[in-house]
Task: structure prediction
Amino acid sequence: MIEFIHLKKSFGKPVLVDVNLQVEHGETMVVIGRSGCGKSVLLKHIIGLLKPDEGALMIDGQDVTRLKGTALDEIRKRFGFLFQASALYDSMTVGENVGAGLMIHSVKTEEEINERVRECLRMVGLKGIEELKPAELSGGMRKRVGLARAIAMNPEYILYDEPTTGLDPIMADIINDLILDMKKELAITSIAVTHDMVSAYKIADRIAMIFGGKIIWIGTVDEIDNSGNPYVDQFIHGRAEGPIQMDLLKP
Ligand SMILES: Nc1ncnc2c1ncn2[C@@H]1O[C@H](COP(=O)(O)OP(=O)(O)O)[C@@H](O)[C@H]1O
Ligand SMILES: [Mg+2]
Result:
């Protein structure tokens, strides 16, 4: 289980003010919120890429905000991370990208690593593209390669940062289906952050909305349509009118 407890983070200005959230074993939690509300910041805390100003982040009972060095590496190995911009190494082939974690962290032989890379690429529907370079791929393929890399080390958890943003609706749906497959086949616990409501409805067991640095609502996909929360209603229907006001002067 992953648990955020009174997590607080400022960058000069407050971003996460008081985040409390529990993600249960085996569920897919989708965190929704506007651009710039702190979704990526939230995810980065889980694998220690950012440290909070205050609060704790418990993973199976251990506060990861206090870990560093090898203890933090051990935690990171249990996570797959699909970054917003895929974050592939352009100078490496697709196969090397997918196998990079295995090369560094595992005791597998080269042939075993190649086999695992093949298997992961097959799972995301990209057979036989090991030798291509990231620059030769479309945005959707890059996401899928990023996903293959995220699952290569058999993680217990996958963190998805805007998995469908920037993709056409059909490719977005392919990615959503893959996220559902990962959950089913690998019994994985996931957190996805997104502002894509089509994706949120499709992949989530529960949805949490972040606004003003706090989780202001949490519930199931079935509950969100009748949340009775005006902030949630405005966001999920994409209305300009409502309690969430655009601050047009700020980026
Ligand atoms: N490393 C950083 N240094 C300074 N400000 C940051 C940093 N990371 C994020 N921020 C700021 O925190 C806010 C939330 O960012 P982010 O989590 O990326 O938003 P989003 O919800 O779109 O993912 C933004 O205003 C961003 O500029
Ligand atoms: Mg982001």
Residues 76-193 form a domain with the Rossmann fold fold (CATH 3.40.50.300). DSSP finds nine helices and ten strands in the chain.
